[in-house]
Every structure is written in C-alpha cells, then in structure tokens.
Amino acid sequence: MLLQIFPLVLSIPVIISYSLFDELPIAIGKVPWQTSVQINGKHHCGGVIYSDDIILTIAECVRKTHVKYISVRVGSPLKNLGGIVANVKKKRMQIMTIRTSDVVILQLSRPLKLGGNVRAIELATSVPSPGTKATVSGWGQISTLVPSSEILLRVNLKIENQMKCTVQQAIKGRFLNFDEICAAPRGIVPLACQGFVGGPLVSGNKLVGIVSCDFLNTPSVFANIPWLKTWIDTTAQLMKTFNIG
InterPro entries in the record, alphabetically (predicted)? Predict the structure, then answer.
C-alpha cells in the first residue's frame, strides 16, 4: 500500500506548482458523477454516472472490448484504487460507432448505491452560450513532460463559439459534426484532450459534453450531450425495460 501511495505523494507538488490550477487535484465529492472506465481491472478512460446502473463514456474507449472485460470504479479520486468497482453487463453504441465523438451507454450488472461520493448528473438540454465557464475532470496529463495523473484533476474551460470552432477544425482538415461541441482553455492551461477522454464537460452542474479526442487540439472537441439527450434517455430506458443491448 505504501509503495502505491508514495508515487502519488510525489506527484502532488508538480500539480499544485501551476498557479492557474486552483482546482487541481480535486476531491471526488466535488465531481461525484466521475467514474473510471476500466479494462481488465485497469483505468482506460473517464466516464459519467447517468443513473444507478448506467454509465456514459466515449465509444472509442470500449469499442473493441467485450463487456466481460469492462468495469467501472466510482467514488474514488484515484483511478486504480479505492471506491467501488462494478462490472458492466451490456453496452449500447450510437448507430455510427466509427467516429471519435460517438457515445456508448454501459449498463452495470447491479445498481450503484447513490449518495455521498457517488451521484448521477443531470443532462443539459441546451449548449451554454459561448464564453460560459465549464470544467473537465479526469486523470489527465497536465503536461507533455508529466505522465497521466493517478489523482483526479479538474481543468477550467469555456464554451467555444460553434462557428469559430468549425472554422478552426476545418483549417486542420477535420470536419466538426453537428453532435459535437468545443470548449477551450480559459488561460495557459493544458489541453483538455490530453488523457481526459471519456471525462465529463460540466457547466452549471449539468453534463454538457464528454471528452472525445486524445490528441493535441485547441479547442478540444466533445460529444454534444444536449443533442444526444433524447437518444441517451430513450436507449437507457429500453435497456432497462426490454433488456436490449
């Protein structure tokens, strides 16, 4: 146990030495909807608690993995230690399932006990206006010189103008889909895409997006949760009622 904790202790001064990172690291109680989506018992991506038995993440994280190898860790600020681990029994992807921004719905083998450090988050019904404050949490990489964090982090962002983002992405040769949104750093901070994939983009305590890229990109691209809300709500209910998946 001491050997596991020691590297975490060493990493904290690196994190808090950045004056702009006033929310790094962060307690799980401030983002109780955060999950670690794990493959073969190891952290692979971030995820979000939608309900007591439904987790949302990016399809790319688990696209090629059978559900028997997928689990989620909740209620812990450490990606590979503590909290509660629950197995996944079903997954349901968007029809396309070939884009980096596609969302997957994971159904757990048994419901979580919600409360305290384990809570669901409400889905936003509309994208906040450009410039609105937002955050992304996860076990990301805060610098190209530092490996991905073992401790939960939170990065401050702002919602980006969709047209501006579309143009910026087009210049780079990437077409921005209608079910994607953008958010950019509010200062000289690390890019949200570095190791935060599957993590929640939150504004006003509502889920606005899910990190969908894992490459150097400014602004960062997210799955557009308000656009996908109807599909998520309907599919999650069908998975529970008719055992589809």
Answer: Peptidase_S1 (IPR050430), Peptidase_S1_PA (IPR009003), Peptidase_S1_PA_chymotrypsin (IPR043504), Peptidase_S1A (IPR001314), Trypsin_dom (IPR001254)
